[in-house]
Amino acid sequence: FFDFDILYLIPKLIPVFLLSTLGFASVGTILSAISVNTKTREVMLPILLFPVTVPVVISAVRSTANILHGGSLGEIASWLKLLIVFDTIFLVVSFLSFDFVVEE
């Protein structure tokens, strides 16, 4: 369509896609478990989810833009590190607090 071959970029984009998806899933799971017991659960989840996932959105967009402009994985290493740290923190917090959150 725009004479842009994206197939050779897919191996570079896979880590960004996987890490950002993991970040959204880990945050969304714990925050949905928190908001399900509130009266305003339909409004509470987006209010809680959006500010917490801003680092995931920013790093995924910057990484993808850099790759689409011809950058290498080394150039987006800092954004990937941010995603890894974010995912690790929220996976651990979700794992440790899930039983407590579900009980209430």
TrEMBL record:
Keywords linked to the UniProt accession: Membrane, Transmembrane, Transmembrane helix
GO cellular component: membrane
GO molecular function annotations of the record: heme transmembrane transporter activity
Pfam family for this entry, one: CcmB
Alphabetical list of InterPro entries matching this protein: Cyt_c_biogenesis_CcmB (IPR003544)
Localization in the cell: Membrane
Chief place of localization: membrane
Coiled coil feature spans: none
GO biological process, one term: cytochrome complex assembly
Residue intervals passing through the bilayer: 6-31, 43-62, 82-102
Topology term for the membrane: Multi-pass membrane protein
Family: Belongs to the CcmB/CycW/HelB family.
Protein name, UniProt field: Heme ABC transporter permease CcmB
Record organism: Aerophobetes bacterium
